[in-house]
Amino acid sequence: MSGSKKKSDSEKGSSSLADQMKNSMRFEEDDPRVLRLGSPVSTLRSRMSSSNTRSTSGSSASVSGRNVSSSTSSGSRKIKIVPAGNICPSGNVITGMRCKPERTVLNDNEMIPGMYGYGSIMPGGAMPKTHRASPESSGVASSSKNNPEELNTQANEIYKKGNFAEALSLYDKAIAISPGDGRFHCNRAAALMGLKQIIEAVKECEESIRLSPTYVRAHQRLGSLLLCLGQVENAREHLFSLGQKPDQATLQKLQAVAEHISKCTDARRLEDWTTMLKEAEAATTSGADASPQLFACQAEAHLKLHQLKDAELWIYKARMYEPSATACQSKIFGMLSEAYVYFVQAQIDSTLGKFDDACTAIERAARIDLQSAEVTGKLKNMRLVGKARTLGNEHFNSKKYAQACTAYGEGLLLDSSNSVLYYNRANCWFKLGEWENSLADSNHALLIRPHYTKALFRKAASNIKLEKWADAVRDYEILRQELPNNEEVAENLSHARVELKKSHREGDGKVELVSDLEKFRAAIASGASVVHFNELSNPECMWMSSFMDTLSAKYRSVIFLKVDVKQSPAIATAEKITVVPTFKLYKNGSRMVDTVTPTPGFLELLIKNTFINPI
User: Fold this and answer.
1) Which is the most buried residue in 53, 347, 477, 554, by most CB within 10 A?
2) 76 — phi, psi (to 5°)?
3) Coil, helix or strand for 330?
4) What residues contact residue 87 under an 8 Å CB cut-off, 6+ apart?
5) DSSP 8-state code for residue 87
6) Can you tell me the distance from the alpha carbon of 278 to that of 169, in angstroms, rounded to the nearest whole number?
7) For the chain, how are helix, strand and coil distributed in percent, rounded to 5?
8) Sign of the C-alpha dihedral, residues 259, 265, 269, 271?
């Protein structure tokens, strides 16, 4: 065919294309592809015709950047092709395929009946078979869905933007396709690091090295992770593996953590718990900020310093980490790190009186590290303490209080930090009428476990028996805050207050000297009080002190106290005393009046107007 003839045919095809597309939009009202509800609009595509015979002539045109070929013959049958979701001239909407296709395998020039609008228009009316979803809708190019290299590349780009969760998802897909590629596991570890999932990241690095033993990046990454976990020697092994050397910042961090752990070890051996706590904290802040054994180290130091709440907090943090294969082989203080965590947990449980939990924890530590003499020694010790406790309880329940004291004492010889055994023995002493011993053991229990309510209750009762009214008032006031509805506490507090007032009235007319802040607060907590803040070396204070003795004998319903501000700076600071002599009048713990260097007459007038005949 000549060039001029081709040009004429092309122009003819172009002029008739619009009419063909318009005609293709006409449908009968009963056409099954017509939807009489509003619908979305999709891109309009041209009608195409196909023929069972070979085309004798044809023309080509360009529509929206796509090539469309049409062929005609005298015996051809026209097929109307329109994209799904388009609006017809009548206002109805074409729905496209309404049922399952009859066939899914096509020849080049065939189409699935009823399926329109999917993919590009191809020469001869054929359609591509794979372009069902656009790359934009899936977030990953369809060509890379089954290509682990491209998935890994895309994940790397997303990782650089800080989208660690999304990157992790893509690394997972790459690993699912190619699980034996160590690079993908190493990259997955990086995403896990970004998500602060340190233990999982360690496991991925270990898997990467198992698959690719000479993969330098995996060794370096694992070394950095192990340093965060406080495993200095394991970290060093990987950071310097295969002839490599870490960067200067990592090297300095490694050296700092190693130095602090060494000092921490020395302090523990010397039972210098304050230094041990300080060095453990320093190791954590220097780079080992995800180290369960260093968290347990801080917990043990807090426990030995009788800071039980802090000990519970740090052991909880330590128990949050599940050890990896590498972590199971690391050591601290001569025992496996995992065993040490349970070793400390057992001590804390024992202090809290959770004997069964303590035994479970120390038995688990022994299963992990049977070679540790410290672990096996603690296991044996706890079993003996448990037997002593059981025997003591049996004697106590049988009202054999002396034998119970002996049994609890044997347990305390084995474990002097057991607050429950001290409390149990205090109960025995109380039953035997040994008030001083009961008070002493109650104080021991509270020293180990400051918020031990039962021990405080026993201490308060012992103080009442010993007629230490100020101490009893202080103890019962604390108990009243903790047990506001307890009738026994309320009755004993009221009794102690009455006896405290009575003891002042029955005095020899002298003013009581108070030097302890807690006792001072207990003394002014109830009733009317006059406090003289003075210095013994001050002549004016000495003169007013003699007058205070006179007032004390005269006004028996008022408590008169004196405080030497040099001997008791805590009281002076709490009451903001800057000048002496200063007098303050209190009622039920609340300050009513204060005055500086008053005359004797003025001071007595204040007492009358405030307490005796209030205006």
Assistant:
1) 347
2) -75, 155
3) coil
4) 39, 41, 93
5) B
6) 41
7) 60, 10, 35
8) positive
Which residues share a beta bridge with 69? 60
Distances (CA, A) of 253 to 142, 232, 259, 285, 288: 44, 10, 10, 10, 9
CB 375 within 8 A of CB 335: yes
Torsion of CA 597, 601, 605, 607, to 10 degrees: 60
Contact at 8 Å (CB) between 259 and 241? no
The token pair at 423 is 């409390």
- Under 8 Å between Cβ of 218 and 186: yes
| pLDDT tens digits along 371-414 | 999 999 999 999 999 999 999 999 999 999 999 999 999 999 99
Q: Can you give the length of the chain in residues?
A: 615
Phi-psi region of 308 (alpha: psi -120 to 50; beta: other; left: phi over 0): alpha
Q: Residue 271 and residue 275: Cα distance in Å, rounded?
A: 9
Measured over the CA atoms of residue 398, residue 400, residue 405 and residue 408, the dihedral's sign is negative
d(CA 286, CA 481): 42
Residue bearing tokens 């090539």? 67
**Using an 8 Å Cβ cutoff, are 72 and 51 in contact?**
yes
Q: Sort strands 58-63 and 48-50 into parallel, antiparallel or unpaired.
A: unpaired
Q: Which residue has the tokens 């209080």?
A: 401
Residue 508: count of CB within 10 angstroms of its CB? 7
Residues in contact with 126: Cβ distance below 8 Å, sequence separation at least 6, in sequence order:
106, 108, 109, 110, 111
Residue 184 tokens, joined: 């993908």
Query: Which residues make Cβ contacts (< 8 Å) with residue 481, sequence separation at least 6?
Result: none
Per-residue pLDDT averaged across 34-44, rounded?
A: 40
> Rg (Cα) of the chain, in Å, rounded?
44
Tokens of 61: 């045109």
What's the predicted TM-score (pTM) here?
Answer: 0.59
**Alpha helices (H) in 320-452, listed in sequence order:** 337-351, 355-368, 373-397, 401-414, 419-431, 435-448
Residues whose CB is less than 8 angstroms from the CB of residue 301 and which lie 6 or more positions away in sequence, other chains included: 273, 274, 276, 277, 280
**Distances from the Cα of 266 to the Cαs of 81, 333, 374, 441, 483, in angstroms?**
85, 9, 16, 32, 44
Residue 127, pLDDT > 80, answer no
Rounded Cα distance, 306 and 302, in Å: 6
Closest CA to 229 of 287, 177, 278: 287
Q: To which H or E segment does residue 308 belong?
A: helix 308-319
Residue 132, pLDDT above cutoff 80: no
The token pair at 220 is 């370096």
- Compute the half-sphere exposure of residue 304: CA atoms within 13 Å on the CB side of its CA: 16
The answer to whether the peptide bond before residue 83 is cis (omega within 30 degrees of 0) is no
Contact 401, 395 (CB under 8 A): yes
